[in-house]
Specification:
Length: about 575
């Protein structure tokens, strides 16, 4: 629901709040108390209910997503601390654009009581107030608690403006003065649906559109703002303007600088900095601020001006007498999505794949993984098996050479021949951090990597164990149990790769205390973790099922009875007496 505006100056008839009696407004609008008179001129609720009923068709036909809330707030206004609360200008504009033609077709006009201009000054005042609110955004008064918490967001490392710089205005260190703000900007984004891959997992990204509303708590995502928006404002046709988009939370970088916009013909701008999507890869919703300035005339973009507008945008605008304002301010709240995580990850800016894997892990629980686990590291497991051919239940199978990384987010299912014991995977470790810190390890950092199958019995089966991994290099660790590929005896098993941070070196000889006589069976993982003071930092997993390669192992390497192992398999035992073609697996 959009944040709305409390109006202090209003004709007072009702001295106190009263319960809403209109059935249309009793649910789904976020409030249950009203006060009169209203904007439509009704002094009492009874008349307002009749007036609202006369345009009920707009609500019934859902001509705008917010039409019911908007009309309720006009006719049956919310009562807050004895004062009415008006809808914002943005809410009115959205309702008008979706519904005014329908209203005309019903023989009615968009009445004065619904005219969006009456909300404009109140909205401007509220935007200016909120831009100075030091509790509104992540870098506000609660930032110390946020950034000192365990597994703190990586946004904290980009909080270069600390201390008193706790509001949008304060973030720009005296270079942003909103006293001249006298108009609103209408900013609209449209985005298409597409398929992308992020952190080895395919995602279907949605399509849609939205209008920026700085008073709304709504949070958007980089995918939704990757295209240049359409922007309009009230303008003198002969006046030149400059429009900028800057990051208020993490560094103040410019995401667009457009000069010499004549009137509000935004499409015909000169770009000092081309528009680029606000790529917030972190878990906090960060404000990206649009600022509109008047120019004293057409500007020639010299080298020094371009450099200043690019490197320290708001300060340059504040210091240069050719710019007046800002005349309008707005912002959009952006937080991470798979698009921003893969975009910046592929460019070695930041690694935040662990946040997506953590989310997936919460939907893939195991008894030895704490339910509140937040992962701080990526465990990227890549297999490059060579080609192999084998006979299983009298059929010949040929597996081609391939290379692939497992996808824990998508619960990837792998063929056991592709992850067999001879196909030892490579494991790359990186931290949830900005580069280069994401791949930097201290000399005294040690890790343990294990691969376990919790579906093997009452206690997990230990497929792989590497201790005392230094500097994030798994190959330099001590391999206590060599890699052994999955071979589930039946059904589908999940195989976890778990990375733990050590507090000290671990003596490899102690591992026998946590398994049975078979050295891998019944691994007491919880005891091992607890006794050695290990902290889970990263995880990955894959699924594998009982398949032809497992049956091949049972018969050819474990000397189990072929008839028993292959019972029920398609074509068996007829395939043993005929000349069959081979089965090729990619």
């Amino acid at each position: 629901m959009r944040l709305l505006i409390v109006i202090s100056a209003f004709i007072v008839v009702s001295k106190s709040c009263e319960q809403i009696r209109s059935p249309l407004c009793q649910t789904g609008v976020g409030y249950n108390l009203t006060i009169f008179p209203n904007l439509a001129g009704h002094l009492f609720q009874g008349g307002a209910i009749v007036g609202l009923q006369n345009i009920r068709a707009l609500i019934d036909q859902k001509c705008s997503p917010n039409i019911r809330e908007f009309l309720c707030r006009v006719y049956i206004p919310e009562c807050y601390q004895g004062k009415p609360v008006l809808p914002s200008w943005e809410m009115c504009q959205e309702a008008y654009e979706g519904c005014h033609q329908l209203m005309s077709s019903l023989g009615q006009s968009w009445s004065f009581s619904l005219n969006c201009s009456k909300f404009e000054q109140s909205t401007i005042d509220s935007i200016k107030t909120k831009s100075k609110d030091n509790t509104e955004f992540w870098f506000g008064t609660g930032v110390n608690k946020l950034c000192n918490a365990p597994h703190a967001t990586i946004a904290c490392k980009r909080n270069i403006h600390k201390g008193h710089m706790d509001s949008i205005v304060a973030r720009f260190n005296g270079n942003l003065d909103t006293s001249q703000v006298d108009r609103l900007m209408q900013i609209n984004y449209t985005y298409s649906a597409e398929h992308i891959t992020s952190c080895f997992n395919p995602y279907s990204m949605p399509g849609g559109s939205f209008q920026v509303d700085p008073l709304s708590p709504a949070v958007h995502h980089p995918w939704e703002v990757r295209n240049t928006p359409t922007i309009t404002w009230t303008a003198n046709p002969s006046q030149y303007y400059t429009l900028v988009l800057v990051d208020a939370g993490m560094g103040g970088n410019a995401y667009a600088v457009f000069i010499n916009i004549r009137g509000n013909d935004f499409a015909r701008h000169e770009a000092v900095v081309d528009y680029r999507a606000p790529m917030n890869p972190t878990e906090v919703d960060n404000p990206y601020v649009f600022l509109l300035y008047e120019q004293t005339g057409r500007i020639s973009a010299t080298g020094s001006l371009i450099q200043n507008l690019t490197s320290n945008t708001v300060a340059a605008l504040h210091a240069n007498s050719h710019f007046r304002g800002p005349k309008a301010i707005s912002w959009v709240r952006i937080k991470q999505d798979p698009y921003s995580i893969t975009y910046l990850g592929s460019r070695s800016v930041v690694n935040n794949c662990p946040s997506l894997v953590s989310e997936a892990l919460h939907h893939h629980p195991a008894s030895f993984i704490p339910s509140n686990t937040i992962l701080d590291m990526s465990v990227d497991v890549t297999y490059t098996p060579s080609s192999i051919s084998f006979i299983s239940c009298c059929k010949t199978y040929v597996y081609n050479e391939k290379s692939f990384s497992i996808n824990p987010i998508g619960n990837s299912t792998v063929k056991t021949a592709h992850v067999r014991s001879s196909a030892i995977p490579s494991v790359s470790l990186s931290k949830r951090d900005w580069y280069p810190e994401a791949i930097q390890f201290a000399d005294n950092e040690l890790y343990t990597l294990m691969m376990v199958d919790p579906d093997a019995g009452s206690s997990p089966y230990l497929h792989w164990l590497v201790l005392n991994i230094p500097k994030g290099n798994v190959n330099d660790g001590v391999s206590v149990r060599e890699y052994k590929g999955p071979a589930p005896p039946s059904g589908v098993h999940t195989y976890y790769f778990l990375l733990y941070k050590q507090t000290a070196k671990i003596n490899p000889s102690v591992i026998g205390n946590y398994t049975t006589s078979c050295s891998r069976c019944g691994f007491k993982i919880s005891n091992f973790v607890s006794n050695n003071h290990l902290e889970l930092k990263g995880a990955s997993w894959m699924l594998s099922s009982h398949d032809e390669y497992v049956r091949h192992l049972h018969v050819d390497e474990s000397s189990k009875d072929r008839t028993q192992v292959c019972s029920g398999q398609s074509g068996f035992p007829a395939s043993c007496t005929s000349v069959g073609s081979s089965v090729t697996v990619g």
